[in-house]
Amino acid sequence: MGVEGMSFSAEVGSGHLVNMDGAPEAGGRNLAPRPMELLLAGAGGCTAFDVVMILKKARQDIRGCEVKLSATRAEEDPKVFTSIHMTFVVTGKNLDLNRVQKAVDLSHDKYCSATIMLEKTAAITHSIEIKEI
Question: What is the DSSP annotation of 32-46?
Answer without folding.
Answer: S--HHHHHHHHHHHH
